[in-house]
Amino acid sequence: MGNKTAKDSVIYMDNHATTPIDPRVLEEMLPTFTVTFGNAASRNHAYGWEAEDLVDQARDRIARLLNCTSKEIIFTSGATESNNLAIKGVAQMYREKGNHIITVVTEHKAVLDPCKRLESEGFEVTWLPVRRDGLIDMNQLADSITDKTILVSIMTANNEIGVIQPIEQIGRLCKEKDVLFHTDATQAVGKIPLNVEAMGIDLLSVSAHKLYGPKGAGALYVRRRKPRVRLTCQMDGGGHERGMRSGTLNVSGIVGLGKACDLAREEMQEESSHLSALRDRLQSRFTSSWMRSISMAAWSIACPAISTSASLMLKVNRCSWESMMWLCLQVRPAPRHPWNLLMSFVLSESGMNWRIRRSASGWDGSIQRKKLTMWPTR
Fold first, then answer.
1. Number of domain units in the chain
2. Which of 262, 289, 318 is the last residue of a domain?
């Protein structure tokens, strides 16, 4: 596996961690490195104007995908920064109104850790559990909201098990209770339809590299009307992005994010059908060959000691379902660690056992189809 030439015979199945850049995205980015390389904040010459135009075009593309206005898009370095800006920014701005935040135990660390930090600073955080299917209990959420609650932060699609929370119901509840609603939609943007207006979302985090864009680029949707959401900036130094996020804009990454969102909007339905077919076929092969399987919102395969977040590459010309099972059975705890591969805390909170995460790739689907046909059938 260490030999780079061996990549021709493997299938990458960890697209929840990152995706390759779509060649069409890369093509649109390339001129920004050598031709349209201006600083978007340089408003006194043509190079800066050109860069600013590219940034504005990307805002428009993202806004069309989310059904918001371009002025509601704030560019960041990725979803982790977006989550921190949303959660800490609301907490600090609205502290006089209240100090209570609600989130879920199965959130990504980019949400859990900012909430833990705020908790250490005197904020009250309610950590909602999930049911066995990975979903929250809406009644429990409603009961947790108090007159001191200022923010509810619940991810749209889980990065480990793929379960999709009832975002529209959550948004409606938050509106009724006059509480701001943030969602980390990193795993959902470009894969399922999202409408911030219809869903009642006030803040939404995006990351480019989860939808065939570049690493190091992201965005935060911040509602401007009904209500107008205000944030305390977390980075000072220039007042960029309407004063919410200082720093020279990553024009190349922003262009890539915009193009990736445009492609997702145009191809979402077709791509969803294609990936669903690949998922169903792979699930069928697994469940027909393995003794244990569990179907959830996103299917997962029971395995004794391979965690959900394990990145497993399979050699097409040497793999069989029997050898796959053998591999799972052979993984044991490392001498210096409780578990060599960390147990999935998401599935643990859901009351499940060990699982393997699998996510198919989209833009090179023809290659994936060809490779999958080479897998042995039983």
1. 2
2. 262
Say if 164 falls within a structural domain.
yes
378 in a domain, yes or no? no
| Whether residue 35 is found in the same domain as residue 75 | yes
Does residue 377 form part of some domain?
A: no
CATH code of the domain containing 176: 3.40.640.10
Same domain, 192 and 293: no
**Pair (292, 258) in one structural domain:** no
Whether pTM > 0.85 for this model: the answer is no
Q: Where are the beta strands (DSSP E) in 90-136?
A: 100-104, 124-128
pLDDT in tens, 244-289: 888 889 999 999 999 999 999 999 999 888 888 887 887 777 766 6
SS3 137: coil
Q: Measured at the alpha carbon of residue 181, what is the angle toward residues 106 and 70, in degrees to the nearest 5?
A: 115
The C-alpha atoms of residue 113 and residue 132 are separated, in whole angstroms, by: 24
H or E, element range at 204 = strand 203-207
**4-20 burial by CB neighbour count: b if 16+ within 10 A, else e?**
eeeeeebbbbbbbeebe
Both structure tokens of 315 = 């050699």
Q: CA 300 → CA 293, 340, 345, 378, distances in Å? A: 7, 20, 15, 20
| Whole-number Cα distances in Å, 91 to 39, 75, 129, 279, 330 | 32, 20, 22, 40, 47
Q: Cα–Cα distance between 16 and 277 in angstroms, integer? A: 18
Domain range holding 125?
Answer: 23-262
- Give the C-alpha separation, 12 to 282, whole Å: 14
Please say which residue of 200, 231, 262 terminates a domain: 262
**Per residue in 72-119, pLDDT tens?**
999 999 999 999 999 999 999 999 999 999 999 999 999 999 999 999
Q: Is the dihedral of CA 53, 55, 57, 59 positive or negative?
A: negative
Cis check for the bond before 166: say yes or no (omega within 30 of 0): no
